[in-house]
Amino acid sequence: MKRPWQIALVFAVALAVLLAAMGWISSEVLRLERDQAEAKRLALQEENVRLALWRMESALALLIAQESARPPADYTAFRPVDAAYAEQFQAWPASKPLPQVPSPILVQTSPYVRLHFQIDAEGRLTSPQVPSLSDAAKDYVLPKQVSAKTRAAAKSRLERLGTIVSRDALETALADGTEPMPSMAGVATADPQQEIRDGPRDLQQARPQPQAPPQEAQGRAQPPPQQQVAQAWRNVKEWEARRQQMDDLSRDINLQIIGNLDASGATGVTVMRPLWIGGELLLVRWARIEGADYLQGAWLDWPAIRSWLLDGVLDLVPLADLAPVTGNPDEDRTRRLAAIPVRLIPGKVPVREADGLSPVALSLVVAWVCVLGGAAAAGMLLTGAVRLSERRGDFVSAVTHELRTPLTTFRMYSEMLAEGMVPDEDRRRQYLTTLRAEAERLTHMVENVLAYARLERGRGTGEAERLTLAELMGRVRDRLERRTRGAGADLVIDVGDEAGAAIVWARVSAVEQILYNLVDNACKYAASASDRRIHLTAALADGEAVLTVRDYGPGISRAEARRLFRPFSKSASEAAVSAPGVGLGLALAHRLARDMGGDLRLERPDADGAAFALHLLRA
User: Fold this and answer.
1) Dihedral, CA atoms, 373, 379, 384, 389, nearest 10 degrees?
2) E strand or H helix at 102, and its extent?
3) Are 256 and 355 within 8 A, CB to CB?
4) Could you state, in order of their start, the residue ranges of all structural domains in the chain?
5) Which of 28, 379, 512, 515 has the fewest CB atoms below 10 angstroms from its CB?
């Protein structure tokens, strides 16, 4: 057999390889689970972002449609009555001008529009919400709900807007970008409806065409970078779909406007274009009125619009934000709004975590528990097998040592007796006594080994009997006294009347062997004691009868007590320096006591010596 340290080293290496493999597998499985969870979170975020963008586009479409549908004449604070209403004023004095009709913008307010404005060809900035009241006719028809306070607030906004925008700045902004506004010459065509329906030629040429996604992104199994490319491609397609919807809406509105141009001299308009000028969001368009080109638009309240849009998608992207897009609008269209130059910053979409461990993590925990438990069990079994092998090796060496001395004595004495070398009768009787003692010692050792082997195979030592302690002691007394007399010790048996009358369940042969082993140990280990008495006492306890064997020898140390009842615990070297034996007597006695339902325990006496208590069940 190999040395124990070699076996331990091989086991440690195998265990380290197993744990390393389990660690790597666990790490990879957890990484794949995290990647899968992250992919699900990103998919949920993309879906929520897509729904949020469409919801925002739908909300903005109503606002932009309302502003785009305004006739060009609405950007003048007052205008004469239309021809449709002229019959109502046939009796109106010719010398008196016709009444002036206020612009609907004066009374139709929006929480998301700060001010409507118009810039003429000379660059003068006016607003229909800041009317000039120098004319008495205009003062006469001014709506009463337009108070002086309201006009003052509008005038303040107009002054502030004048510091932000100018005709040149707006013309430059309208001319820049990937989708420039069509020229007024393009609007005033022979068939304006066809122009709006198909879109201006320069707009068609300027619109960026989508590029095909990478070939790898079309596959089903994609590494993360390619999945991001494919997702970006889908986001661009979503943006183009939303942009197409806004273009169709703008064309439909312009078809209505061109088909119903009023009598104010307007001959054409363009679609409203959202612009960022000086950090402010504007809707601007061109309008041709009586041959002159005007810039008309609305100054939007961006903070209010931002809060309005974010509140509308709070259930989808609660951590989202909106940021203006002031650079090239085609740099990144994955999160762009088509209605206004704004990008959605979705933030992290919160995902409700599952309570407790995931099935994968729980499976890994179970696997680790099983692996560690199996490794611990294998280690314990291996350690036990190694220790048992060592003890059996020690037992073989101890038995060999124990057999050598009596066999040598047998051979020497028998040869001397057979050859007549011992003529003296006393010496011959002494040799025969020695041979008988050695024979008894060998018989006792063989009986112990055979009895322990029977217990190991699950065989008992006989049937239990119901008898009194006095009867039991009477049946084992002779053998015990014979052993103590041979060792020159005195056996003192103290069984009182009450204890002697107690009835116990016991196997007589097993009790005899237990007590004999205890007395035999006392004779061997207390041989040098000054007090050669060996006490055997009987006492009663709760449901038990206790037989105690005590000597007055050197006693048993705590280190020896820990392995006292282990089988094969004495090696040949230990047997050579201590009392003869193979280290099996106490282990056998302990097993026999347990086999009867009792127990054998080491007691700590008050004085020197050792004491063992045999507990038997009372009937």
Assistant:
1) 150
2) strand 100-102
3) no
4) 21-80+97-209+223-345, 381-617
5) 28
Long-range interactions of 260-265: CB distance < 8 A, separation 24+: 260/71, 261/71, 262/71, 262/72, 262/73, 262/82, 263/82, 263/83, 264/71, 264/72, 264/73, 264/76, 264/79, 264/289, 264/290, 265/289, 265/290
- Is 335 in a helix, a strand, or coil? coil
Distance CA 551, CA 71 (A): 124
Rounded Cα distance between 195 and 32, Å, is 55
Element (H, E) at 546: strand 544-550
Cα R_g (the chain), whole angstroms: 56
| pLDDT at residue 266, rounded to an integer | 57
Q: What is the mean pLDDT of each run of 10 residues along the chain (619 residues)?
A: 76 91 92 86 83 88 84 80 54 63 78 92 90 54 69 90 91 66 37 39 36 40 53 64 67 60 61 89 89 91 94 89 78 76 83 73 90 90 81 71 76 83 84 82 77 71 81 89 87 88 88 88 85 90 88 84 72 50 76 87 79 89
Give the span between the Cα atoms of 607 and 210, in whole angstroms. Answer: 103
Give strand ranges (E) for 230-279. Answer: 266-269, 273-277
**Please, which residues bridge with residue 296 across strands?**
118, 285
For 87, the token pair is 């019959």
Candidates 306, 189, 323; CA nearest to 254 is: 189
pLDDT (0 to 100) of residue 536: 92
- State the pLDDT at residue 302: 94
Q: Phi and psi dihedrals of 586, rounded to 5?
A: -65, -40
- Could you list the beta-strand ranges (E) of 257-399: 266-269, 273-277, 280-289, 292-300, 321-324, 342-345
Tell me the C-alpha distance between 70 and 118, whole Å.
13
pLDDT at 190: 36
Which tokens belong to 606?
């008050």
266-271-276 Cα angle (round to 5): 120
- Report the C-alpha gap between 277 and 275 in whole angstroms: 6
Which residue, among 166, 195, 158, 176, has the nearest Cα to 271 in the 3D structure? 195
Structure-token pair, residue 611: 């004491």
| Secondary element (H or E) of residue 506 | strand 503-506
Burial class of residue 60 in the structure, from the number of CB atoms within 10 Å of its CB (0-12 exposed, 13-18 middle, 19+ buried): buried
Residue 277 phi/psi, 5-degree rounding, is: -125, 120
Instruction: Tell me if residue 268 falls in helix, strand or coil.
Output: strand
Which of 231, 213, 226 has its CA nearest to residue 42? 231
Instruction: Please state, in angstroms and as integers, the Cα–Cα distance from residue 355 to each residue in 41, 44, 437, 519, following that order.
Output: 17, 19, 77, 66
CA distance 29 to 27: 6
Question: What count of other Cβ atoms lies within 10 Å of the Cβ of residue 487?
Answer: 19
Q: Which of 498, 567, 580 is nearest to 539 (CA)?
A: 498
Under a CB-based contact definition with an 8 Å cutoff, are residues 493 and 473 in contact? yes
Q: Which CATH architecture has domain 381-617?
A: 2-Layer Sandwich (3.30)
